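Supplementary material to the annual report.
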Amino acid sequence: MVSTTHEGRQTPAAPIAPSTAPLAIELRGISKAFGPVQANKDICISVRKGTIHGIIGENGAGKSTLMSILYGFYKADSGTVLINGHEVQITDSQAAIAAGIGMVFQHFKLVENFSVLENVVLGAEDGGLLMPSLGKARKLLKQLSDEYELSVDPDALIEDLSVGHQQRVEILKALYRQADILILDEPTGVLTPAEADHLFRILEGLKAQGKTIILITHKLREIMNVTDSVSVMRRGEMTATVSTADTSPEQLAELMVGRKVLLEVDKTPATPGAPILEVEKLTVVDSHGVTRVKGVDLTVRAGEILGIAGVAGNGQTELLEVLGGYQNGTGVIRVNGQELDLTGKASDGQSRRARGIAHVPEDRHDEGLILNFAAWENIVFGYHHDPEYQKNAWIMDNAKIKKIAHEKMERFDTRPLNEKLEAKSFSGGNQQKIVLAREIERNPDLLLIGQPTRGVDIGAIEFIHQQIVALRDQGKAILLVSVELDEIMALSDRIAVMFDGNIMGERLPSETNEQELGMLMAGINNGADATLSEGA
Amino acid sequence: MQAMPKWADAVLIPLISILLAFFFSGLTILAIGKDPVVAIQTMVQGAFGSTNGLGYTLYYTTNFIFTGLAIAVAYHARLFNIGGEGQVMLGGLGVALVCLAIDWPHWTLALPAAMVGGAVFGAAWSFIPAYLQAKRGSHIVITTMMFNFIASAFVGYILLNYLKVPGSMSTESAGFSAGAHLPTFHEMLAPFGINFNKNAPANISFLIALLAAFGFWVLIWKTRLGYEIRSFGESESAAKYAGINPVRITVIAMMISGALCGLMAINNVMGEAERLIDNAPEGAGFIGIAVALMGRNHPVGIVLAALLFGFLYQGGAELTFWEAIPRELIIVIQGLVIMFTGALDNMVRAPLEKLFLTPRKNKKGA
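Predicted assembly:
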């Protein structure tokens, strides 16, 4: 099997850690199509025992399909799988487990109100009685936690554990089933940087014990830090397999996208003006009675980007919802000096828009777009009351909206440039461009933007970042919420870190680093806050 | 994701489904020892073979257009209105009250007034479950269904205690005055020299139903309200984000639905019976669900589906009459049509989709 990089090197010749170790996994010519979509095309990978192999690629490149084939969720149309040199038929997940494969999914498969032990044993009980299995699991858990820093309280309920600990339970589950090959699908998406580092130490430990690990991710930094070798996927094909030591983030990005990509955002220092958004003592209690935002104060000035960093679920979503007008809160929010109504009816998005607040929501599938609507119908979504779009009091001017949609989509380089296509037929990046075109083209004073590049391919990320910076340079205020620390660091003029509904601290990007932000994201504030509230 | 061409989805799938339903109906008829070919001939002859039969078919069709549109409006907001039956009953009460209120001089005055009466009563009846759903989260399927029973009992009570002609044994109101008589097809077509059967109940309401179908199309796809209804139906969270008030849309969509059901009463109460009788809807509220489902919630589809069910109703009655096929079997046939066109949609769709996609496999990319 020959996989080549763009420079024409041959993989087997490249020095992969224990280059003499036998192959743990070998995939030969795996192909899989879903209807007309070729999700995997003639994929070949070989991973040596006792190494960490990364698989990197954009959304929809076929990574998850490939791993689902390896774990028996899908049946490949053609190709063979060899485990430890023997061909195996992986017909379902039981067969995968029997072959020594363990999988840690992006979305954990745990029973929330079961204990750690019960979850570990679930589906792998030794007999009709639970006690012997639980006893055995308890012993094993103790042993594993000593060996690999995998300590978890075996009697704790899953719902009481942090996300990082829940992930350890998933790993323990795989190890309990005697997995020799561990596949992790986007494992750091929900972790703080410190938790991610801890995870990588665990992986190193497992590797030292001879386990083979496959790490699926779209984060270049992780690939560079922990893997021994890396395969790049693009549009269902394996474009290259290289030894990590011989590559660079820039090269990997280029291999993923198929062209050169600017990883850094090109921007000049901000020139902040008058405060546009002022939030004082904002508290939000959600429908379950849980206080999600606990007295937050923040200010965003004209011509600056305030980035809100934090692990998902620490109140950022609720903050955006209140600002966007569809969640109630208490406290004071002023936009352009005028106070917003926070206590009125929950659905007040219309009046927010009238105040010059545009909102790119975190979840574009659930909120930002109606997937079954055509692009042109989506381009007025939320602004459909605007007189510009009406023929008369009742009838909308659909012909005009289509024309406007076409123009806006063209300016935002949306592909395909067909306003009649349903939103669901666009790729993630192009869907986001439709939302951005809608919100930015309205020329708002304040842009709320949540997870601007979640599920967006690298090529489109570049474009979206440029648009955000361009809007800032026009003197608009931008509140950016992202769980991607890289994105926060690259775009923000000021960074506020949210933890458990509080702002843990504010930092200037030039005066901080990922370690410090990571501590803040975990709720630890050592340093003094930068003096940020000075000025006009 | 790239699925079949639109015409296949809109025409081919229902057509194949209907043929399958008829095939299995044929087997059933065969099983009770009758000839399916004769049966289908009798049905077609009975439903379309004479202006009398056609008049009945179109009369039923009118009912089903109204209820089909009603269910479809609610469904565009993803509200499942099972209460069509009760809303038609209340509409009938509204129409009857208007018709009995004064001695109408001419139908051109009586009809608009009766339409308002039926629509308002139907809308009011659907308002209660809508409000309970929007404000209190009481599931609309349960409440509308229960409201059918309440409506039945309520209208029966009003009939017995207030509207029944004193001394009469039958639970029906007094007959409406001649001024509230709607032109039948016989009267409408006579000036053009067309001799339509005098006894057939089809009347001008059929045209009102077609107008309603056109109005439905404008409402759903051309107005801002329709846009909001569809947005809310597609995604409640997105609607909230856009500033669309869920309570408002739920209530409005359900009231339009109830009003359309109520309008049906101009056909059965005012046009046909010319008095309020007990259980006037005869299941039209439920057939509307099947009609909307089969018509893909689009007015053109709904009119065609209503025609099919009108044919089944009228042809089925003929079948009972001439072929001594028990009435229950007609219900079986109707059930088969509903099952194949509605519930088993994917059974036809999946293989058809494969058929359409296979030859293009290599041409189409992502």
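The radius of gyration of chain A is 25 Å.
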